[in-house]
Amino acid sequence: xxxxxxxxxxxxxxxxxxxxxxxxxxxxxxxxxxxxxxxxxxxxxxxxxxxxxxxxxxxxxxxxxxxxxxxxxxxxxxxxxxxxxxxxxxxxxxxxxxxxxxxxxxxxxxxxxxxxxxxxxxxxxxxxxxxxxxxxxxxxxxxxxxxxxxxxxxxxxxxxxxxxxxxxxxxxxxxxxxxxxxxxxxxxxxxxxxxxxxxxxxxxxxxxxxxxxxxxxxxxxxxxxxxxxxxxxxxxxxxxxxxxxxxxxxxxxxxxxxxxxxxxxxxxxxxxxxxxxxxxxxxxxxxxxxxxxxxxxxxxxxxxxxxxxxxxxxxxxxxxxxxxxxxxxxxxxxxxxxxxxxxxxxxxxxxxxxxxxxxxxxxxxxxxxxxxxxxxxxxxxxxxxxxxxxxxxxxxxxxxxxxxxxxxxxxxxxxxxxxxxx
Length: 422
Known about the structure:
Blueprint: H1 10-30, H2 33-56, H3 59-68, E1 75-81, E2 84-90, H4 96-114, E3 119-125, H5 131-135, E4 145-152, H6 160-173, E5 178-182, H7 190-193, E6 202-206, E7 209-213, E8 215-217, E9 220-224, H8 239-251, E10 258-264, H9 271-279, E11 284-289, H10 293-306, E12 315-325, H11 342-350, E13 354-360, H12 362-369, H13 381-402
Parallel strand pairs: 2-3, 4-10, 4-11, 5-9, 5-10, 11-12, 12-13
Antiparallel strand pairs: 1-2, 6-7, 8-9
């Protein structure tokens, strides 16, 4: 006598028993017991499984399964009609390939759980943007430019433009293609820093459109309002006019293919910063400060601007400029004129990395004045410091890009001796 398995509901066992009894009666009446004993076993397996599957395909069972595979929060509607399961759901991402992956995974999961005879009919909608996403200020990607880095400071006079120039030539020496946009409309420094004050951008035709060709020196492409105004001419513009000029240097320039576009922002937080954020998708921000308290107080405001919900630009790290003074005749001595490790303590409090400590060295100032960034001095201490700083910036950028979807950031394909932070 056959025993009923405890794992199956009683009603299934009863259905099977009645069907088996009828089959036995039919086989005896036909006098072919051996043949029908084989038929009984065949019908037993198939009939039992089919009726088991049909009884188990309930809305409750499907809802429990959706919880098991952790997609129940995406399901908006569920209906079952016979062997047809109708599900309306919302994808995690609006990207078509993500919706297709979800559809394939759902069909495979249902076939494995309920059988191939189940027809899963999916309707996958794109997610609605959240209120924060709707309010975020995001610009359009510039074709050919992989990563846009904003170099900022809360206060003027901390050496931000000097740091930008030296980071640019250091990244170029590491094998990256680099451009610099001087966004300090009212006090452009890039022409002086790169010894290109007498240069003027020319017009070139790209895909039937006239574009500005950036000035190039030391392998770095650059544009600045200083190339269009006279050396002694003051730029007296209101915010909208300055923003329009800046947008033209971004969009109407033939930058070509760049791994990095460094944007030298003016001090503080204002129209220019918002214009940049609205015009281009900034990959990350690097903050430059000196160690003293009066500078750090304004740096906090600059960091707060980038981390606002409506802006949401990751801060890659902090560079402490003029961290200490080292005289040329005593290269191993350090004198903390502006205070010691003030920026480092603040970085720890804010949870952002310190990318480097740049010393106050006479040769840095002299190199900037003659238009040849100090980082170009091969084998010098300052060149090594800037190389370490640039490597840490790239590492922080790689870590940031790894933790964001590809639609939000472009991955770096060449590390040039760098490695992601552990």
